[in-house]
UniProtKB/TrEMBL annotation:
It comes from Hydromonas duriensis. This is GntR family transcriptional regulator. PROSITE patterns: HTH_GNTR. One of its GO terms (biological process) is negative regulation of DNA-templated transcription. The lineage of its organism: Bacteria, Pseudomonadati, Pseudomonadota, Betaproteobacteria, Burkholderiales. GO terms for molecular function: DNA binding; DNA-binding transcription factor activity. Keywords: DNA-binding, Transcription, Transcription regulation.
Amino acid sequence: MAEQNLGAVDTSPVFSPLYQQIKALLLHSLEQGEWNAGEMIPSEIELAARYKVSQGTVRKAVDELAAENLLVRRQGRGTFVATHQEAKVRFRFLSMNADSGEEVKTNSNIVSVERITPPEDVRMNLGLTKKDLAVKITRLLSFNNKPAVFEQIWLSPHIFNNVTQEQMMNYKGTLYGWFEAEYNVRMIRAVEKLRAVMGDAQVTESLEVSADEPLLFIERLSYSYADKLVEVRHGWYLTTAYHYKNELI
C-alpha cells in the first residue's frame, strides 16, 4: 500500500520519518480523548487504512508508544490505552525500595484535602493566578505498615474540581488511578528534584521521627498528554530502611 495522503502531515524527506508522523497522529488522538484509558484502539489494519500507510509503519509507531507505556499490547486481544490500573505501570512513579530487597507493601492515608492559596512556585508551575485557590492533598504513605513518606500534592482547581477527602478515601486504587478514573487525567511523565533536608514539626510528627532525622525531599512535577503540567508534589521520605532507585538507560 502506498504510504501517502496524510492530509496535514508533510511526508517530504526534510520532515520526520513517516512512522513518527503516524505516532504523532496517534498521540493527538490520545490527547483529545478519542480513546480513553483502558480502551482498545483500532487494529493496525484499521489504522493503516485510516492514515493510508502500510501496516508496518503503523506497527512501528505503536511499538514506540507501547515502549513509552502509553499503549499496552495484549496477546490475542489487541492494543489498549495504558492505564494506571495496569500492573506493569501501576507503581512506575514510586521509586522507593527496601534495603532488604523484600517487596514493599504500601498503604495510603489521606490526611486532608484543602483549597488554599499555594506557594508562589507552585502557583507558577500550575499556571494559576494569584486569586486561584489550589487543591492541596496531604497524605501519609506507609511501607509495611510503618510511616515512610509524607506528601503535599498540589493540583489545579480548573482540572480537579470537587475533590473531597471522602471520595479519595473510598477509592481503593492508586492516587494516579483515581485521577484517571475520576478526571480522565493520565500521568505520562514526571521530573523530580532531590535533596537532603530536615522536616518541620508536621513532617516529623507524621513520620514519627526526631527533628534531627535526615530525610530525602523530592519535588515532582507530573505531566499529562501534550506535556501539560498537572501536579506539583512535595514528598519527605524516610530512608533508614529504604532507598531511592532510578535506572538510567
